[in-house]
Amino acid sequence: MSRRVRYTLVTVLLLLVVLTAAGYFMFGDQIQAVNSIREIADGVFYLEYRGDYGVADFLEQGGAASDAELTAFLTKFFTKGLY
């Protein structure tokens, strides 16, 4: 294997490791919550969320006057502003 190919493969591998670690650092709480979903009865589900719910930020920004404002806040909070 040539030196250039080896360098490219190592670089791509390191980039994937860094991106995976960054994604888990940013969204680890959400990933763990999704992995904890259990059906406890027919149509009734349970999940455990360990992390910041964003309540303090929500109250600081004045709460919400409508469902749409609440949805917009939660979407921005849980996607870290990426969506």
Q: What does the model show?
A:
With 83 residues, the chain is mainly alpha-helical. It is built from three helices and two strands. It is elongated and about 60 Å long.
User: Which sequence of SSEs, written as H and E, runs from N to C?
Assistant: HEEHH
Which of globular, elongated, flat, extended, rod-shaped describes the shape? elongated
Number of strand elements: 2
Strand order of the largest sheet: 1-2
Distance from N terminus to C terminus (CA atoms, Å) equals: 41 Å
Estimate percent helicity.
55-70%
Number of helices: 3
Ordered list of secondary-structure elements with their pairings:
Blueprint: H1 3-35, E1 38-41, E2 44-46, H2 55-60, H3 67-78
Antiparallel strand pairs: 1-2
Write a brief caption for the model.
The protein is mainly α. The chain has helices at residues 3-35, 55-60, 67-78; strands spanning 38-41, 44-46. The mean pLDDT is 90.
Which features does this protein show?
mainly alpha; 2 strands; 61% helix
